[in-house]
Amino acid sequence: MRGIKKDGITFLGEFTDKDLEREFFNNDMKRYEKCVGPIAMIYGTIYMMFLIADYFAIESALGFQRIVIIRGLFLMVSALIYVAAKKINNYTQLAYLITAYEGLAVMGFLGIIDQYESLTLLSFFSVVAITLAIYVIPNKLSYAQVISIFLSLSFFIFYANRITGMDTFMFLKLASYSFIIITYCNIGAYLTHFYKRKHFAENRELLRISITDSLTGLYNRAKFNEEFNRWATYCNDHEIPLALVVLDIDDFKRVNDSYGHLVGDQVIQNIALITKKTIRSMDIAARWGGEEFVILFPNTDIHQAREIMESMRICIQNNECGTVDRMTCSFGLASLKKNESPESLLQRADKLLYDAKAYGKNVVICELEESHDL
Q: What one-character DSSP code corresponds to residue 71?
């Protein structure tokens, strides 16, 4: 895992590593997906309630009708967001939907104040309230920044001059207040995004440590058992093949006795590296203990698994191990029987490993060869 110190976080409050950012964003939005719809309905309802103030402030009947249409449409959009947020599983699309919703809120607000012949300072405070609301809804910080800046610029360019008593000094004063508020919102949002990602990265690293073997980087025994049980249940339920290999480094005690445990660790790391390069992304490898490894092959029959293991056996045999003489491994390969337990499959593969040792080592023995004379 590439941690937070290496990857860092941009000034937009996102991981510089795109894959890590995508993983975090999906995880984060999943936490908030249930509250997006209710927040939208609350905003839509409040948005509609301001129609009362419009009724007393707008003299033009046509202008009031337009405001009714704008507020009514926004309430309908809020209801659609409430429904859509429950059904969207793609969190990037959900972020786009939220941003579009915020954009509609801003456009609706600008359309409403356009119906007023003159404005008061309450219009500016409405801009402040909407800006704060934009940063409340869970979304990417960059999207919120674009919407909030668009709102402030549009207001000050097209409508601020309608405020009663507006002069150059007041204009600059309100503009500076708006800048301070947006800056404050961005600092607060950035710190929130930063520490959420920092916490996420730390938890991710702790999880990685808890499920991997520190020497090899492969899964540890506890994590492998978890995956083994899960896949055994799944394959039994769906009647799909599952193969298991138990492998052991041949004559490993000789390495430790002759070269020392540090060199022995290097040999184990070397075998683990070859394992990672040989198996497929769907396969699950772990260090079972000492010089013994296990590999699980989901949705793979014994013939396919044997081809992969034979290729791995040759790679290990031909690999240079530094000061150590040529190293080899022995393999025991078994496939899951109908309604068989993981423990039973492991015992059969382990027995086949012992058969491989007795056969002369540096060999893959599978169930199809059990009838061979050993």
A: H
